[in-house]
Amino acid sequence: MSSFWGNQLHISIFGESHGKGIGVVVDSPPPGIKLDIDAIRAFMLRRAPGRTPWSTPRKEEDTPEILSGFYHECTTGTPLTAVIRNSDTHSSDYGNLVQVPRPGHGDLTGSIRYKGFNDIRGGGHFSGRLTAPLCFAGAVSLQILEKQGIQIYARIKEIAGIEDVPLDPARPPMQELSQLRLKSFPTLDDSAGSSMIDAVEKARMELDSVGGIVECFITGLPAGIGDPMFGGLEPRLASMLYAIPAVKALSFGSGFDICRRRGSENNDSPFYSDEGGQRHITYKTNHSGGVDGGISNGMPVVFQLGIKPTPSISLEQDSIRLSDKTDAKLVIKGRHDPCIVPRAVPVAEAAAAIVILDSLMGSGWFGGRNA
Amino acid sequence: MSSFWGNQLHISIFGESHGKGIGVVVDSPPPGIKLDIDAIRAFMLRRAPGRTPWSTPRKEEDTPEILSGFYHECTTGTPLTAVIRNSDTHSSDYGNLVQVPRPGHGDLTGSIRYKGFNDIRGGGHFSGRLTAPLCFAGAVSLQILEKQGIQIYARIKEIAGIEDVPLDPARPPMQELSQLRLKSFPTLDDSAGSSMIDAVEKARMELDSVGGIVECFITGLPAGIGDPMFGGLEPRLASMLYAIPAVKALSFGSGFDICRRRGSENNDSPFYSDEGGQRHITYKTNHSGGVDGGISNGMPVVFQLGIKPTPSISLEQDSIRLSDKTDAKLVIKGRHDPCIVPRAVPVAEAAAAIVILDSLMGSGWFGGRNA
Amino acid sequence: MSSFWGNQLHISIFGESHGKGIGVVVDSPPPGIKLDIDAIRAFMLRRAPGRTPWSTPRKEEDTPEILSGFYHECTTGTPLTAVIRNSDTHSSDYGNLVQVPRPGHGDLTGSIRYKGFNDIRGGGHFSGRLTAPLCFAGAVSLQILEKQGIQIYARIKEIAGIEDVPLDPARPPMQELSQLRLKSFPTLDDSAGSSMIDAVEKARMELDSVGGIVECFITGLPAGIGDPMFGGLEPRLASMLYAIPAVKALSFGSGFDICRRRGSENNDSPFYSDEGGQRHITYKTNHSGGVDGGISNGMPVVFQLGIKPTPSISLEQDSIRLSDKTDAKLVIKGRHDPCIVPRAVPVAEAAAAIVILDSLMGSGWFGGRNA
Amino acid sequence: MSSFWGNQLHISIFGESHGKGIGVVVDSPPPGIKLDIDAIRAFMLRRAPGRTPWSTPRKEEDTPEILSGFYHECTTGTPLTAVIRNSDTHSSDYGNLVQVPRPGHGDLTGSIRYKGFNDIRGGGHFSGRLTAPLCFAGAVSLQILEKQGIQIYARIKEIAGIEDVPLDPARPPMQELSQLRLKSFPTLDDSAGSSMIDAVEKARMELDSVGGIVECFITGLPAGIGDPMFGGLEPRLASMLYAIPAVKALSFGSGFDICRRRGSENNDSPFYSDEGGQRHITYKTNHSGGVDGGISNGMPVVFQLGIKPTPSISLEQDSIRLSDKTDAKLVIKGRHDPCIVPRAVPVAEAAAAIVILDSLMGSGWFGGRNA
To answer: Do D66 and A9 touch (CB under 8 A)?
Structure first.
């Protein structure tokens, strides 16, 4: 009981890194939504490995086969299922037991949890590869949201301590951010991006890895979506974002900075604007990240995800040998990313899209008397 | 659909700040657990208002009346319910509509969400007062966990930029932390605490407020509790912690710092220890906050909660008047805390306890063949 | 984890028969629905004991106190909570253990399940008294549904083998059925009702009890509500109706009779009708009970509930004495209904109303773009 | 939100009758359970079409491909997924709209629910074919239960009014019932079975269909499994059994017969037995079907499922043409079973097994301190 999520839009993710395949059941998107399969594939390619120097050379086509819920190019309203076959697996038989668990991974904890029966090849069900079906579900959700005027874009905010340009959470440049989907290294400031790439490459050469921060912006969400307490947008987003491997920190709006502010500085005051022709409520600042009392206030929903440095590194590490209960040295041979942050960018967008779509559906957005 | 949470241990919270009462149904703790009602009350008093200069002078006895699930001093195994009557409410009739919403609160978003029908007196269901029943459920959970050797202590880590002593997440001083329950201002370093109190008092005199960070430590949790993906300890803790009003950031272990580290620095390596007589696996460091792959690794589970400055301040603020769609000035008259952080300390412990108990129950901890 | 139910409308029931009180949290009805509290009380009185010769003489006012979610005579949209105090309890201390469990009750199974810690006085959380908060939630749901043109009426179909008039599930006489709410013994045929009362009275005089069947009709539900598979109206109704104590059988439409029919007799054929001015789809027959593929077809939703004879009887019965593991004779002294069927009529309506409201909310009925 | 079910063992079913494939995610069986794949296939073949004169000639191999959660012949503890490819589909393009809906099917209600976008070929997601993945999940659950000493066998109790031998729910002949798995027409009384086959054949020749009743027996379940109210075994079994297409009635133990009994006749009295060497509680009768207060009492859990006659018949039927809003005649050309009851027998066993396994897991059966 671990790998499903959702209230109105329910996803169930399955698979292991080196098993036959991975996939997701999405139960169920609203019916009659035309899906652009090429756009879904393009979205998933942003996450796929093997395309850049800073990602693992494992090559996976990651082509989702849609098994159900899609007919005449539209969602049917019944469960939408996609399966991705694993192909480029290099798992000389690991046997059935972890011998020397990799630090920073779920090797040891998973082995304890499952009494040694889980498939530990390539991380098994704990592998970052399981974000591929999450991206499928997210790409579908994004397309549905875009038809409702809701847009979600993320970027690399920071890698190895090098920061992209700071952005005002009240006025994110969505047009520029949208262009990042075309870049393999999605920063707004190319020179910062270039420095980050250098830092990643340096870490790789030194058989090490680096971490960073992804920042995500959601615009077009009207005020009034979400619920108080456990149904709030923050707890619901967090319940999914923290399921992304390597995420160890999450903040909204101005994040931990607000802890050092005074209320008079931090409060976002509403005002009436006539911009666009119709009098409406808006805010000058957006320290809250677009959510008050768990409910959207009409401003961009903004969050930052702290991503740890890839735990799989080529440097020799200390670990243990379970079979004879002794300490041991570990050199990881497999393929791995020296920095997972660029590939986490589409995953953050995907996760956010699923949560927002679920919240919209929970508010009856796609329903009504003729449902 | 907002105010319930849980898989195996299910809580349902209800009430409004100025209504008849607030409370919680806990469905259901394991049967036959002897509860110390005085200790529950003492725990709840740590959160209760009106006891210190830095909390709202609203005085509430906050005495929970247990309506069900408790018999012969023990849990029965069927739903445990507590109701707390509201007494010291000063709600000259607000009418049924928000006129000038308070910035940083759920006044405006709640009003949009509920079409103006929610009870907005004192924040209604959005009020921080709803953490009182959460503390009841948490105090019960804590007592159950303590009998299993699991301890949960939180502290003020930082207020207004002033920091308490840094702690190694691998070796938190649980004995000292446990003594903080007796202090009205729970910092380890009294002189830092004193500076924080000064900063809070200064903010109060200036009709303003300050924020801060709470840090929480869970020890005694064995390795192997939790699940991969959405069932992980981090997403599950986050799904509850972000429901606490004023929480805007959350991190585990070394938090956002890990984003600037290399993998070789950040990975926690396991080793065998014979300390205590029995060979067991432990770790030198605990940057991960005790969770790998969503599952506990036997080290302390450690997290930091970023708390925003209390949005209710006495300084005049900009807002809007909804009735005539004009901008307006707002001076909040009610009673409020210049800093909510000290009262958030027991709330963090309570929330963590509920999540950990639910996770233990989900792992079959209290069950077995004779269940 | 036992006493909560629901997807979009979530109810959490608590309490024990002889504890301080019982109640329910309803999280949450749509906001802004004006509730008629007198009508709720009148509805609940139909279930309340002590009003007729065929019900237990235990007198309970059963007045619900609404603690939250109700403001200015309307639902707020946040959790609606009602508590009913237990008053007329005659529980000379039972001690903490079942000694001689009552056959046909949860005394023994509950004691095993909860290791002897459950409150067994008067049946504790297993008591039929727990249907009082269900009726509160149901009465609220019924009022909301009635404003949407949906009506739910049940009747006694049969007691002790004596049947009320058979009704065509395609054309139930809702006007006549609505009048049954005013009768303490709700049958359409007064003479059948009179015979049933005689049979109940005869059983009571002979220190015994009788069972029967309740039939319930839901009209005004448009076609298209519900889902395939586990989200179907039948599984969802069944998941609640089988939670009513003493229910041991449930059927829809023509019930078990259809098992003996041919498809050509049993299929309900649609046709177009111009009755009422607008061309619409309807059906001549309604063997299916208004549900095809789990989804309403616009015809009345009809079901029958088989209620067992009250297990508490005054006749001496065989049982066991747990303390010394011997067989024992049991004479039940307490107060009990010789026939629970009349009081089950409003409970069936209440349960059905909650499920239908949840299903409507799940279809986005109360939502829409401005939600 | 329709096709997933479960608390501790969670299943998510997907697919359409004539789409690429159908399947199920089971999240997750306990780890380390050795599965006999041949036995799973054999179990599923009992449900598969095309093997007997009374089932549709559609031939489907129905071979499940296990994509995840199975490694070294054992469950891993992470999601177990099986996909069944659709092969023998004869769907000359139906277009995207139901034109003349089949009476008794979800064609019309599904079309309304999904605004015409659902895949209606062969019934789509509403097809009885979706019970194939349910049987996969059930076959796995059965193997796990059998290792715990729990057995589940169903039989044809009645077809077309012809009854198999009556069985005492207190003492079902499990040995004989187990042999029914080898029979294509699972009745205990071969002569009754033969008459039933004749009745089915007669209906088929007359282009019609017949219904019947399946009865299921669960033995070996210890007392104390289940919960009061909505967590009871009856509501939980019902929530799954009513999801089986064509089920319109369900009863436990002595079913609707108990409605005509007196309490003194119907109550099952416990007594102490020394049979088998150890003093234990048992019952002479089992009118309750092994469940008191929602919780197992140690006697066999027994239920009856009322199955309607197959709605797809070859006789001309009345229906409507949606395109021009006129009444129309319908002759169904496709392949269909003249009686679905024999194929419902393994489906009932499968559904029961999933529910019982989920309930055992919820009671912590597979857990404990070393989990």
So the answer is: no
